[in-house]
Amino acid sequence: MIKIDIQNIKSITTGLLLENEPMINHTTFGVGGLADCYFMPSDIIELKEVLKYTYANNIRTFFIGSGSNVLVSDNGYDGIIISLKKTFKNLEILDNGTITSDSGVMLGSMVKKATKKGIEGMESLIGVPGTVGGALYMNAGAYKHEISNYFHSALLLDKTGIEKIYKKKDVKFDYRNSSFPEDEILIKAIFQYKKGDIETISKNKKEASNKRKMSQPLKYRSAGSIFKNPNKKFPAGYLIDQSGLKGFRIGDAEISTKHANFIINRGKAKSKDIIKLINIAKNEVFKKFKIELKLEIKLLGFEYD
Ligand SMILES: Cc1cc2nc3c(=O)[nH]c(=O)nc-3n(C[C@H](O)[C@H](O)[C@H](O)COP(=O)(O)OP(=O)(O)OC[C@H]3O[C@@H](n4cnc5c(N)ncnc54)[C@H](O)[C@@H]3O)c2cc1C
């Protein structure tokens, strides 16, 4: 493992640099050990410098948004975690439906501001607790809409800090997946939405929000759906429920009684308990239905567990 020389990074940045940072503070699950270094660059210039440095020094790097789809190991992460959530926040919404958003903008904030202006096409995404960068990387979706539907182009930096532009034709989006390389960081994106009727848009947004509140255990910390739905007929939650696992608990980690594809943290859950529940759900569903559940969430730092 390469030891990070924090002083070296400090000398090339003015951004917030935290050493041995508990990932509990940066994930919606509220679990995870220490990251060697957690960094929020002040601007793109210093982000480029830090990427050049980490690349040249062979330092492991992970990009995180609001950590709402990530499970970090109890043993933490040996490397630097970079987030744009606090500092890359510019959002420009034009009346014709063109939206330019920095990656660190919260998706919910973009949805609220755009729908107020009568821009249509993203209202069902209300309540997805990610950043625009994380949402695009994951191709977040809800109630038949995906963020990629109105995607136009994006600016990324590669692992050496070089700028790259991706147009719609350059990116393949699938269900909860995009072809953006995992060693490149999304900086900003442009979307081309449509204009619509404000009242209808607000009604649809409210309906989506209500459905979410009715069906998801939002009182507890979680990472949303753990598994991808294998198909429309048999959603993962149904399969887990039918395997008799609703409410099954290890320590403070529990398969939600409200939505069986959610694992909730009842307080002091550990990643290792969540992983055990994940494996139990996979095994039981396979035993009963011969269907292999695939993770939607991203795992970080489990290589050495
Ligand atoms: C209560 C709850 C409800 C949810 N409901 C939904 C839902 O309805 N639909 C849905 O699709 N998801 C849902 N999610 C999951 C999650 O919110 C989305 O996947 C979200 O888009 C992730 O965004 P994030 O910023 O938190 O990304 P993170 O979780 O931080 O990261 C997710 C992935 O994106 C990558 N990434 C993040 N930012 C960048 C960047 N700037 N550049 C490059 N890569 C990046 C990370 O490396 C990681 O691989 C839910 C989660 C919760 C907790």
Can you put this structure into words, describing what you see?
By secondary structure, the protein is an alpha+beta fold. Helix content is 26%, strand content 26%. The chain contains seven helices and 20 strands. The strands form seven sheets. Strands 6-7-15-11-12 form a five-stranded antiparallel β-sheet, with helices on one face. Strand 9 (141-142) and strand 10 (145-146) form a beta hairpin. The protein is globular and about 55 Å long. The mean pLDDT is 96.
Main sheet, how many strands, which sense, barrel?
Answer: 5 strands, antiparallel
Question: What fraction, in percent, of the residue positions are helical?
Answer: 25-40%
Oligomer: single chain
Helix and strand sequence: HEEHEEEEEHEHEEEEEEEEHHEEEHE
**Helix segment tally:** 7
Distance between the terminal alpha carbons, to the nearest Å? 15 Å
Each distinct ligand = flavin-adenine dinucleotide
Q: Please, what is the average pLDDT? A: 96
State the secondary-structure class: alpha+beta
Q: How many strand units?
A: 20
> Which value, in Å, is the CA radius of gyration?
20 Å
Proportion of strand residues: 25-35%
Spatial order of strands in the largest sheet: 6-7-15-11-12
Shape: globular
Low-confidence stretches: none
